[in-house]
Amino acid sequence: MTTFSLNQSSFLSCSGVSGCGKRRSFSNLDARRAGLALKVVSVSTTGRVVTEERNAVVESKKLKEMGENATAAAASTSEAIKKEGEVLTVGGGVRDVYGEDCATEDQLVTPWSVTVASGYSLLRDPLHNKGLAFTDKERDAHYLRGLLPPAVVTQELQVKKTLNNLRQYKVPLQRYMAMMDLQETNARLFYKLLIENVEEFLPVVYTPTVGEACQKYGSIFTRPQGLFISLKERGKILEVLRNWPEKNIQVIVVTDGERILGLGDLGCQGMGIPVGKLSLYTALGGVRPSACLPITIDVGTNNEQLLNDEFYIGLRQKRATGQEYADLLHEFMTAVKQNYGEKVLIQFEDFANHNAFDLLSKYSSTHLVFNDDIQGTASVVLAGLLSALKLLGGSLDEQTFLFLGAGEAGTGIAELIALEMSKQTNLPLEEARKKIWLVDSKGLIVSSRKESLQHFKKPWAHEHEPIRNLIDAVQDIKPTVLIGSSGAGRTFTQDVVEAMASINERPVILALSNPTSQSECTAEQAYTWSQGRAIFASGSPFDPVKYEGKTFIPGQANNAYIFPGLGLGLIMSGAIRVHDDMLLAASSALAEQVTQENFERGLIYPPFTNIRKISANIAARVAAKAYELGLASRLPQPQDLVKYAESCMYSPVYRNYR
């Protein structure tokens, strides 16, 4: 067997190649095309790739000729594949260039990278590395002999060993760092471990631990996990996007770090949020990791502590605002669409209120955009309320809602509740809004304050006397549902919870702020102060609570229920825009996954152990709505959208290599 290791550098210079008389320099575009041509060349004279067209062995004397004809080679190979009827797309219509996702789990695949990964480079490629799980045959074929100890183990044993190691760490941040190291060395093992132990490790890779990770990101940073786009890259953002090695991007999560969870401005160190979110897109929603791109836009920070921190990794300047900020974001949005096309999903994450609403409003009609803080939080909370109504009885329009917090999350949730109420009852939206009251830092939002309110608060300014304190608002408005999205910890005091319990037989109390330290109250406080009558859920996880001999399991209104399935539904339908009806569909699908057994345990959300099934159902409902609204571009519509969603999901099981 003859094997060649070819890469782009083989075409940048022909010195040292037999029969080459002069040196030739290729442009970056030529190099990329050359790389594309190489990817369709077989690595051995006996190995069979996807088509017979790829079975020719490239001899060294033909390197120069291949380099000069790379474009033609790529085109002819693509044509040959099409003629033979090869499936070039996988679930969601992604181009399956290497045949990996089309193959069944028992078929052999080739670990293609920029070159055919082999030897030491294969062990350093997180998408293809299997560690000690490489078989003896694979070790011979890919030059791994001597680079690994002789033992051959299963992926299951690797999971068991890794779990044992992770559980030795008592500090959550140490677990986080170990998990990130695993993701960067063996992606399939990382995702298999996370999927199979999601309830244990979701709080590690996501909230609350990710908040501490962002605060200390400069100190723990070892290797880049996404793209950093700063003011230094003005005018060159398209070029920066092209530096990312993966080209078939389907989901981008982007932040500017100004409002990270409830922790404030963390600048460039907010990168932990996009990385964590996209890990969940893969683990919970089945989006391929190679199709995910985390991005942080660094326009400076107003956090003096970070600016004076010697380990801070971002721009050391105050935040850019106004036109300078808008121009940079516009260049970014334009470059993303130009580089990745119309159907790439851009998820805005942890932008400050004033920018979050403006960006969503500006680009929702031209791009496939989604703001998880505004729309994702709203969808998951609405799902919880729909579930709670099965315990309470009655309908949505019979409830009165009081919010503490009138930012992105609060107003986003309120608007989606009003939309659902309007659809259920045919009430005008303005009338539905009158059932919802918001309290901000200055007190109850009322019409007499309208002139001084930010634009996104104005729809919630109702006729009422001004009220300064939350407890007074509870006693006067008499809400059936109290929702906290303030980012201010311990603001649902004993007086507030007891007032809710005196007004309602089963008060609904949702303390949504993250991380745990910023939660408006703890689960124990909610159950104890309400004499065990509260229907409670929080944004961050709390342990079960025992009260008067009964165990209460607090629900978690975690956005991770919604955004992975929503994203998968948008991808697999080829949606070109996000519509509010898709969010309502996602809420309804999630609420339907709550069983009677869950209700009996006090849960208004299903357990995360079934999250992939939940995500598939949400994806199917979202895709169906996209087709119904005429926003889907992937035709024809699959007959069974749930099965199709499941077939689209990334599997972390190791593949067998030629």
Task: Name a few traits of the molecule.
Rossmann fold; 42% helix; 16 strands; 658 residues; five-stranded parallel sheet; 28 helices; disordered N terminus; seven-stranded mixed sheet; alpha/beta
How is this fold's topology laid out?
Elements: H1 9-12, H2 28-39, H3 63-68, H4 70-83, E1 108-109, H5 119-123, H6 136-141, H7 155-166, H8 172-185, H9 187-196, H10 198-205, H11 209-215, H12 217-220, E2 227-230, H13 237-241, E3 251-255, H14 272-283, E4 292-298, H15 304-307, H16 322-340, E5 345-348, H17 353-363, E6 369-371, H18 372-392, E7 401-404, H19 408-425, H20 429-433, E8 436-440, E9 443-444, H21 470-477, E10 481-484, H22 494-503, E11 508-511, H23 523-529, E12 535-538, E13 545-547, E14 550-552, E15 555-556, H24 563-573, H25 580-591, H26 596-600, H27 611-628, H28 641-648, E16 656-657
Parallel strand pairs: 1-16, 2-4, 3-4, 3-5, 5-6, 7-8, 7-10, 10-11, 11-12, 12-15
Antiparallel strand pairs: 8-9, 13-14
